[in-house]
């Protein structure tokens, strides 16, 4: 499940991932992303990951379609427990034009401030 919540900055999206990510979740995210992208040249994303169980096959295929939007992300803050630090490091390699930083769940407000700078 992907939950999109209001972000404290106009050019940002806050996304919370829990459980299994479905194709419909990614389609919903893409709609919100494209609305922000129409208003701003680059979008910042705060990605909170908690108890993620994986992605369905249809979700994975939809996720591949999202790669066309990677160039439109300026900053991404990943908020998660320590086991996700490795994922953040791997993401940084495929997002060369995106500033990527990992934050512990207790530091979510710090992640929000970082996105606003």
TrEMBL record:
It holds the Pfam family SpoIIAA-like. Transmembrane segments: none annotated. InterPro entries: SpoIIAA-like, SpoIIAA-like_sf, STAS_dom_sf. It comes from the Bacteria. Gene3D superfamilies: SpoIIaa-like domains (3.40.50.10600). This is STAS/SEC14 domain-containing protein.
């Amino acid at each position: 499940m992907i939950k999109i919540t209001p972000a404290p900055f106009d050019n940002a999206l806050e996304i919370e991932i829990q459980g299994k990510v479905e194709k419909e979740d990614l389609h919903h995210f893409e709609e919100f992303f494209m609305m922000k992208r129409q208003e701003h040249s680059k979008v910042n994303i705060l990605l909170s990951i908690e108890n993620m169980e994986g992605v369905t096959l249809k979700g994975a295929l939809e996720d591949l379609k999202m790669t066309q939007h990677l160039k439109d992300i300026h900053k991404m803050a990943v908020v998660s427990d320590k086991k996700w630090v490795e994922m953040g490091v791997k993401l940084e390699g495929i997002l060369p034009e995106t500033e990527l930083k990992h934050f512990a769940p207790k530091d979510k407000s710090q992640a929000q401030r970082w996105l606003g700078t």
